[in-house]
């Protein structure tokens, strides 16, 4: 941003007016002796003796101000670059506004147990942007509290869906810790904020107790998720959305494409999805007729949408068939959120053109080969690397 300062200078113009004295000088006449001034009996006015502040002459009508030329003051030194302090053990580094820095949260979990894999080093990570390797600027393993929105579907559908939603919401609330910030939102035809961000678990539980009798049948998932992301874009730091939903959208004004674009344009947000109504779906499976096939296709499409939301943001999607699976699923979500590797890098493509950049993270050993893990019995163990699949570069403002 450019700041333009203007210095306005006052121009003083002296006007020469015609007067009888001036006319007398143009005709010859005898000189007139000057009149003697009588001493004044009034004390002098202190203001008359004071020189004008601007240094101009004094006249019959008072001082005439002439702006003095100010000496050019030395320019102030440039402000120091802001320094971002890293945790102990890591070097501090400076950030400039015109140099983009990408922060990437990476989770490494075992494929079978979904347990977090700790104690990896910076040398084990390779980051690619649009297929090109990037140089990692900083690296750390963190264990942080949660800042999340619990977004639940609360519509007048099958009781099985409502039952699953309540169990999932209560399970999530029970696992909160004192330093976790959580907001609760519901949606049917409209989106409603039950509780703003709070660390009080009792407030969260109290808001969930309000979910008794739903009003509308519509499930406007796209509208609700879009509004949630829009609100979270104004919250600083790392944020999470725990979406408890059937995944079906019935009457949204926002399309799926617009939701996907919003996900790409919203940084530092990870979505975890919990599918509801799986047991009800089991009851309808195997039923003949065109209606049953269409309903089954709707459910498959809904699951794919939930999985896409999670995958794009580096989260996970779960589709429990029984309520007993919920504590384990939310335990994995909590562990994934609280235990992460955080990498930063300066992209080799530093253009601020607003394009979407594809990201890929992989693990390598000391020789640069794909990292292989083994259990205590030296058997190979499969793992998953979870991270965002891309980000939208900033658009340069001219």
From TrEMBL:
For this UniProt record, the keywords arranged alphabetically read as follows:
Signal
InterPro entries reported in the protein's UniProt record = VWF_A (IPR002035), VWFA-rel_acidobac-type (IPR017802), vWFA_dom_sf (IPR036465)
Residue limits of the VWFA domain? 105-337
Signal peptide segment: 1-23
Q: Which region ranges are annotated with the description Disordered?
A: 21-90
Q: Write down the CDD domains for this protein, in alphabetical order.
A: vWFA (cd00198)
Give the compositionally biased regions (Pro residues): 30-46
Q: Record keywords: Coiled coil included? A: no
User: What's the protein here called?
Assistant: VWFA-related protein
The organism that produces this protein has a lineage beginning with:
Bacteria, Pseudomonadati, Acidobacteriota, Terriglobia, Terriglobales
